[in-house]
């Protein structure tokens, strides 16, 4: 019986991911336009505008974050615009926040019906298909939430009067801290971004979890994503390792401070409910507001780091340790940014190969061995990245 509730929850997460990817695909041409506007220009106002547009059109904080670090690591952009993209990446959660506000306040069946009318139409261009997929993902998310609420009794009966039920419903410090830690650990292995928002909504509406615990779920995922980001930047060159470590620590501190602030704000958000449906809608709105508070505090902490971290002078002679193939997988890839960067990576590869060919004309010992080894290693890594981008590995 518990599989009925679990199935509706999986349906919610599938719709969330589908709508995110479809929205990013729909905005991809606009994103390329702003990337072509010279994102690395010296004028701060224009650079901020272009970086902000790139992040908002990505519709994914995680992909924007890895795109910012990837552009700097591959020497496609300087430290300032790359750090700015990383700091602004949190704003990419705008679509997920809208989905949370639509939860149980808009009929998902209406959106699926709209998609069916579009599918039977005679005009079906790639852009129209992408728009329909966006609407379809949104409808699936909303219908999954409606089914989850209908199957809520199954979850309540399964938990019963167990210790787990009392643990989740306890809003004191120790249970909340445990949920925070558990959520961070789950985020290290779960690919779906913002799974905590879907799970928090599903548990909150059936009164299985306390509001403090639901907030800890959100903050825990943000902590886990930053730990994962640090783990993936630890093998890059010296400056990227420094930036990744500092950014991760600041973001983790911001997420925890945001959780504490959201816990204080939630008291002022309590209001009287008139009907059962209005109670669901108000609780959903409150939860999204608390979610935005956590993101806002984390965003402010990241911007403070960016103000100081982007001004550090770095050594040009660093190890040629570029991003790994994992960065170009479906989980961390930013298709729009990396497809735009494909030509620049190929150009860098051509320059490295030209230097390697020039080494063959020099006498032995004229060029130090470490420099030759660095060029060969750089050529090998760039060849792998160029091959993956040229073969269409990105989604």
Elements, N to C (H/E): HHHHHHHHHHHHHHHHH
The level of helicity is over 70%
Strand content: under 5%
Mean pLDDT over the residues? 83
Which structural class best describes the helix and strand composition? mainly alpha
- Sequence stretches where pLDDT stays below 50 over 5 or more residues: 271-277
Descriptive notes:
With 395 residues, the protein is an all-alpha fold. It folds into two domains: 2-309, no CATH class; 325-390. Helices cover 74% and strands 0% of the residues. The chain is built from 17 helices and no strands. It has helices at residues 2-26, 28-35, 44-58, 61-73, 79-88, 94-102, 108-119, 126-150, 152-159, 163-169, 173-187, 195-204, 211-233, 238-269, 276-309, 335-359, 369-390. α2 (28-35) runs antiparallel to α3, α4 (61-73) packs antiparallel against α5 and α13 (211-233) packs antiparallel against α14 (238-269). Mean pLDDT is 83; it is low at 271-277.
């Amino acid at each position: 019986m518990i599989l009925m509730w679990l199935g509706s929850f999986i349906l919610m997460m599938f719709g969330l991911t589908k709508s995110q990817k479809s929205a990013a695909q729909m905005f991809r041409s606009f994103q390329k336009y702003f990337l072509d506007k010279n994102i690395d220009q010296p004028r701060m106002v224009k650079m901020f505008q272009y970086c902000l547009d790139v992040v908002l059109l990505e519709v994914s904080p995680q992909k924007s974050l890895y795109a910012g670090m990837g552009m700097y690591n591959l020497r496609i952009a300087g430290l300032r615009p790359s750090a700015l993209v990383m700091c602004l990446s949190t704003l990419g959660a705008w679509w997920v926040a809208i989905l949370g506000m639509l939860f149980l306040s808009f009929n998902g069946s209406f959106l699926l019906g709209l998609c069916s009318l579009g599918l039977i139409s005679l005009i079906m261009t790639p852009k129209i298909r992408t728009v329909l997929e966006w609407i379809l993902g949104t409808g699936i998310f909303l219908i999954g939430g409606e089914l989850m609420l209908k199957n809520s009794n199954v979850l309540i009966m399964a938990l019963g009067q167990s210790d787990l039920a009392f643990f989740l419903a306890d809003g004191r410090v120790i249970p909340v801290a445990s949920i925070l830690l558990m959520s961070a650990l789950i985020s290290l292995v779960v690919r779906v971004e913002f799974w905590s928002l879907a799970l928090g909504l599903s548990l909150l509406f059936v009164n299985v979890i306390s509001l403090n615990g639901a907030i800890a779920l959100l903050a825990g995922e943000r902590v886990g994503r930053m730990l994962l980001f640090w783990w993936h930047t630890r093998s890059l060159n010296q400056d990227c390792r420094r930036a990744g470590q500092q950014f991760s620590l600041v973001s983790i501190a911001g997420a925890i401070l945001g959780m504490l602030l959201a816990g204080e704000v939630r008291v002022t958000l309590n209001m009287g409910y008139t009907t059962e449906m209005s109670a669901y809608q108000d609780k959903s709105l409150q939860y999204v507001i608390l979610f935005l508070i956590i993101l806002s505090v984390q965003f402010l902490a990241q911007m403070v780091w960016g103000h100081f971290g982007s001004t550090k002078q770095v050594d040009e002679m660093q190890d040629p340790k570029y991003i790994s193939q994992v960065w170009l997988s479906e989980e961390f890839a930013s298709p729009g940014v990396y497809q735009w960067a494909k030509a620049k990576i190929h150009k860098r590869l051509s320059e490295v190969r030209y230097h390697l060919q020039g080494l063959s004309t020099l006498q032995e010992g004229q060029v130090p061995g470490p420099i030759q080894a660095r060029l060969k290693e750089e050529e090998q890594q760039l060849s792998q990245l160029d091959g993956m981008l040229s073969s269409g590995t990105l989604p």
